[in-house]
Specification:
Elements lengths: L1 H71 L9 H4 L3 E3 L3 E3 L18 E4 L3 H8 L6 H4 L3 E9 L8 E9 L6 E10 L9 E3 L14 E4 L3 E3 L3 E3 L7 E2 L17 E2 L4 E3 L3 E3 L16 E2 L15 H11 L1 E5 L5 E3 L11 H5 L10 E5 L13 E4 L4 E7 L2 E4 L6 E6 L14 E7 L1 E7 L3 E3 L3 E9 L3 E3 L6 E5 L14 E3 L5 E2 L2
Parallel strand pairs: 7-9, 7-26, 8-28, 9-13, 10-14, 11-12, 13-15, 16-18, 18-20, 19-21, 20-24, 21-25, 24-26, 25-27, 26-28
Antiparallel strand pairs: 1-2, 3-4, 4-5, 5-6, 6-29, 6-30, 16-17, 22-23
Length: 493
């Protein structure tokens, strides 16, 4: 009997423990539930704040991208402010610049009195900011609207400008934020003529005529120029048709913009009968320009361009076999071919600034310049070779859209004629510190610069250049001429 009562007592104790444990569990779950509800209530503003910060970041990034596109591409720049975004400093020697000789930016305004102010309260400004293809609506992806945009002087010396954007979200509880960031600018010199040659171009011998033909821009030659016939000198005619035709498709070579600035003399290998060795030349041919008044050749500094390429572009070193080696490659690296490194597959496949260094990585000299064989079908970018270049395109090139220059005195974008150029092999800039040799006919849209001469394997193997007038303003597609300075983004309020 005693054992039975003891057993019943033990069972009651066990049930009591289970009940107590159950009550404690229920109590703890209740406390946890109340805590969760409390934390959820407290976390709402935090989550909302994070969302607002993310939206502000996205608005700032979108705004910065659009403003930078205005600096780089005149076709998307609002007409009302296009003149304010052009380079307005500089001189005849160095070309246009955003900065004066003391390094001060052309943007000098303040937040209270900015250089550029677009306010959505103004109907025309609202159209620019929110309702036009060149505005912010696409970049913002429907996240918000821009209420105000200011561009004024930089907050740090040496920078270009400050961009301040006030934006609002478009959800059921709109939030307005103002963000600020700084823009910088690269010091890449403008290219102010279609062709620049540092030595003589052509020689007075059969088959030695210049292999260069120019459309839409100047041809500047430091030495002498030799042509086969007087008719090979492009005649400047303000009524000439603006088309993508090659000169060999025209009755005679004529163009609206071409001028010849020759440091020495112009020689004609086969002058017209009865006119002697010095026949009359077209009025757009200017001889004996050196030493005075001088043939202005744009100077692309080796150290500056190398520094820019290491940060913003692509760097290769050229070996004696013509192979390319990336920065930091080991001595055992076999390198890659120029075609593999430089080929652009489609229009818009821009390689940016490609800097190809000397054999030893030092400034160009006669004994350290290699030879790059450019045998791509199509290259799009700025090709800066600290050596010699052989042009040997392997195919017919590509058809690219182009804009002619404006007529003198009319700088508006609408004054430029859209043209489709066929068979283009180089779209951008071809620069060689040494010589350029043509081994197959080549067509280029942009500009060509040679420190030495441009030669050809024979008559008919020429390079035909259509000048891209954007280069005169230092606008280089694929290169961040204007860029957002890291670490300067700030949410003001």
């Amino acid at each position: 009997m005693k054992e039975r009562r003891a057993s019943e007592f033990m069972n009651l104790c066990d049930k009591g423990h289970v009940l107590l444990a159950s009550l404690m569990l229920i109590f703890l779950l209740g406390v946890a539930g109340m805590t969760s509800l409390y934390l959820a209530g407290q976390d709402g503003p935090g989550v909302s704040g994070m969302k607002e910060a993310n939206v502000a970041q996205q608005l700032a990034n979108g705004a910065a991208d659009v403003v930078m596109s205005w600096f780089h591409d005149p076709s998307v720049t609002p007409t009302s402010i296009a003149g304010l975004l052009m380079k307005r400093q500089g001189d005849l020697t160095n070309g246009p610049s955003f900065f004066d000789v003391a390094g001060r930016s052309q943007f000098i305004g303040t937040a209270g009195h900015p250089d550029i102010l677009l306010d959505a309260a103004n109907q025309a400004d609202n159209q620019t900011l929110n309702d036009s293809p060149s505005g912010f609506s696409r970049a913002l992806g429907g996240l918000g609207r821009i209420l105000k945009l200011k561009v004024y002087g930089p907050l740090q010396p040496g920078l270009l400008s400050t961009v301040e954007v006030t934006a609002t979200t478009v959800d059921h509880r709109p939030v307005t934020r103002t963000v600020q960031l700084q823009l910088g600018a690269l010091s890449i010199p403008a290219v102010r003529s279609a062709v620049q040659v540092g030595q003589a171009l052509g020689a007075m011998q059969p088959g030695g005529e210049s292999p260069v033909m120019v459309h839409w821009g100047d041809q500047r030659v430091m030495g002498d120029l030799a042509v086969q016939r007087v008719e090979d000198l492009v005649f400047k005619n303000t009524a000439a048709p603006v088309t993508g035709q090659s000169y060999d498709q025209m009755l005679y070579a004529q163009d609206r913009w071409t001028e010849y600035w020759i440091g020495g003399i112009v020689s004609v290998i086969a002058p017209p009968p009865g006119q002697g060795a010095n026949p009359p030349l077209p009025e757009n041919v200017h001889q004996q320009q050196y030493p005075t008044p001088g043939v202005r050749l744009d100077q692309w500094d080796y150290d500056l361009l190398k520094k820019i390429s290491l940060r913003w572009g692509t760097y290769y070193r050229l070996d004696r076999m013509g192979q390319l080696h990336s920065q930091g490659a080991s001595d055992s690296d076999q390198g890659i071919t120029p075609a593999d490194a430089l080929e652009s597959q489609v229009i818009g496949d821009h390689r940016g600034l490609v800097f190809i260094d000397t054999i030893d990585g030092q400034s160009p000299r006669a004994d350290n310049m290699g030879t790059l064989v450019l045998d791509t079908d199509y290259f799009e970018g700025l090709l800066v070779v600290q050596g010699h270049v052989v042009c040997r395109p392997r195919a017919a090139g590509k058809s690219v859209p182009a804009l002619s220059p404006s007529q003198p005195g009319t700088e508006s974008l609408g004054a430029r004629v859209p043209v489709q150029l066929s068979g283009i092999h180089v779209n951008g800039l071809l620069y060689a510190a040494g010589a350029i040799r043509m081994e197959r006919p080549t067509r280029l849209y942009g500009a060509m610069m040679a420190g030495q001469s441009v030669t050809s394997i024979g008559t008919g193997t020429v390079i035909e250049v259509w000048y891209n007038a954007d280069l005169a303003q230092g606008l280089f597609r694929g290169v961040p001429v204007v860029y957002r300075v890291p670490g300067t983004w700030l949410a003001k309020y």
